[in-house]
Amino acid sequence: MSFVTTGFGGRRRREEPDLPPGQYLAHDFPVLSAGPTPRLSTDRWEFVITTETGEQTKWTWAEFTALPHEDVTVDIHCVTKWSKLQTGWRGVAIDTLMEDVESAADFVMAHSYDGYTTNLPLEDLLDGKAWVAYRYDDEPLTPEHGGPARLLVPHLYFWKSAKWVHGLRLMLQDEPGFWEAAGYHDYGDPWREQRYQGD
What we know:
- By secondary structure, the chain is mainly β.
- It has one domain: Oxidoreductase, molybdopterin-binding domain (Sulfite Oxidase, Chain A, domain 2).
- It has three helices and eleven strands, in the order E-E-E-H-E-E-H-E-E-E-E-E-E-H.
- It has helices at residues 61-65, 94-97, 178-181, and strands at 24-25, 46-50, 56-60, 70-77, 82-93, 107-112, 117-121, 131-136, 139-140, 150-152, 165-171.
- InterPro entries: OxRdtase_Mopterin-bd_dom, OxRdtase_Mopterin-bd_sf.
- Residues 1-22 are annotated as: Disordered.
């Protein structure tokens, strides 16, 4: 008596997701912060780009959300080793925010309402690589995940996607932000496992 019918090939193996080295797949959305979660009213929220000369370009919440937005689906990777795939966001591209800003800067310091900072090369925010996101999964971004708006730089470890973002300061020379000054990598490429200085 045969226990295997003709044409039976066994169970198909699930294709493993393409994750950076050392990462595991998260099905929830872990909440990690360096301090307490600020509660920001959109009535008082503003986003500010400050050039290396001190010139500022500002948007209120109403002005910011009236700008052309993009809906993007991206994978995100946390330095604490979780990755979440195919996350859906709505935000304003940094390209849009930089359209009328004149600068010779090569670097940026992102500033958050809670005092958090993180440094990035300016080129890593341009050409469709980064957004200031204000919706996640078709809902307003919650405070726990950085709402009302956070920086979204999905090709770098997620500490570079500053929560509760208040603005960008353009810099001629690089300088470390909060975690970078504490020993985290200045760049933070998850595919190269750039978690800490020296990686």
